[in-house]
Amino acid sequence: MKLTDEERAMLAGEAGPARQWAIRHQIAVGDFFDAPDFVPVGQAHIMADTESLGEAGVAWLEELAALPRDQRLVRIPTITDPRGLDFNSYKRLKQTDAMAALEGRAIRAFEALGVMMTNTCINYQTILPPVRGEHLAFGDTGVVIYSNAVMGARSNFEGGPSALSAGLTGRTPRYGYHLDVHRAGTKHFALSHQPRDLSDWGALGGIVGKATNSYWEVPVITGIAAAPNSDELKHFGAAAASFGSVALFHIPGVTPEAPTLVDAFQGRAVPAATPIGAADFEAFYATYAARGDKVDVVVFAAPQLSLIEMQQVAGLLDGRRVHEGTSLVVTTSPEIKFAADRMGLTRRIEDAGGVVAAGVCFYQSYAREMAEANGWQRLLTNSAKLVNIIAGYGYKPTLASMERCIDSAVAGEVL
Amino acid sequence: MPITLKCHKGIGPAVTGTALVAQDNFSARYDLDRLKGVFSRPAHKLYGQSYLDRILVVVTAKGGVASAWMLREMTARGMAPKAIVFDRANTILAQGAAFADLTMVDRFEGGDPTTLIRTGDEVRIEPDKGLVTILNRD
Q1: Which residue of chain A has the CA closest to B8?
Q2: Which of A122, A256, A311, B8 sits CB 3.0–4.6 Å from A152 for a disulfide?
Q3: Which of B42, B65, B68 lies nearest to residue A391, judging by beta carbons?
Q4: Element (H, E) at A26
Q5: Interface check B137 vs A, CB under 8 A
Q6: Is B71 on the interface with A (CB under 8 A)?
Q7: B65·A28 Cβ contact <8 A
Q8: Which residues of A touch B70 (CB under 8 A)?
Q9: Looking at the predicted complex, does its ipTM rise above 0.85?
Q10: Is A308 helix (H, G, I), strand (E, B) or coil?
Q11: What is the residue range of B11's domain?
Q12: At the topology level of CATH, where does A5-180 sit?
């Protein structure tokens, strides 16, 4: 990689061992992907929950945090993805004090590095929305795909160590989605059935993601009748990223780099479209169907809920009571939780028997241990992303609309 | 005469080991029971199998940014595969390999390595040279 004088100085250790480690790590990654040089980035977003960090990761962060202040502070606004637990709700979810202690250590280490504990995977809705053409180093695949596709910003999937490196150096290797050449559409899907709600948008993301199935492919979706809203694209993108490792999509007439179908493919030949119809949606839901089964836990998460979704959940629960054999968990960002508290939404959800957890996103918060401690197996959710990932933690997941999830939570069985 | 496969220059030290091959993808967070060292997602083609000390050969990496931390944590506990060979890595697994100093290569001249390497093959990986050698076949 071609380095500037400043980058060479960091590599030589002149800005301390943290920045030296960071730029070394970035050069190893940049070389692997044939990056010609570095690009300055405006923000970094770090996925670093304690479940994935483990004791080894937390101890490593504490070593960085013990460095002198001028050597350890990040150089650009650096924010965090959801944490391993919420100190206000972890006991109700039967997470342990040992988990909370590890979480506390990780938070203290990040704060010593100057990282802001935003604890959110919807920072594009709640913190500082990305701008078209802005280079970023974002973690969380749902954040990256939304920022790239819906905002037209430029980020690769940056894992925790790489996003932290970008925070420390203020830059990232220029490869992948920082380059125009990788942002052209490569696959074409034509819709003949319109998604009706958030779980349908997630299902569509799952269908497109499975059929795309590569970080390096860019799906283009046509046939969408009206512009979706932010929550719909949030669920679509999170599922496409989860099912297919997809980091960018275009919807001609909706997303900024695709005013037209031709633009979506950067003027190259438009490939024949793969049709997606009602039968594809039905087959997707059928994969997870479990009508009549007892529901152990209903989860609204992955991604964290917007204020609008919080209001929808509260409205559907008003005057009802979650079945005594079923738990209902809602996760949102700390900012939205404050707003939901202020507007009485949290109280309405919790009065009906739900738990509202802030700064977490369920699957990143010791899901296996929660399942064992609470005796949870059958999980019902309106998040296609969650049904894709949670089976690996020992759950049996079912996908349904928000309305049907709540009806089932009240009934105690999958309706 | 062993079979030599050319690939892109990779990450981590040269290693030799036994291959575990699947025409499936890989995510450390979603596919594995990292405490037991086995594939735990029922839909995965290697479900129930141990990846410990194996050279894992899979098609690509799937969603899940957490894998970047997890490879180092798994390596620290001696619960990681010996190396990972992809047809095409994604950014997260490459970053995770760099963080963990775990051997990883991808982009083979001869096509998808899951069709070139078989489970049980003895394989030598030299990331700095961009070479993978199948030692037990010719």
Answers
A1: A32
A2: A256
A3: B42
A4: helix A17-32
A5: no
A6: no
A7: no
A8: 52, 54
A9: yes
A10: helix
A11: 3-134
A12: Aconitase; domain 3 (3.30.499)
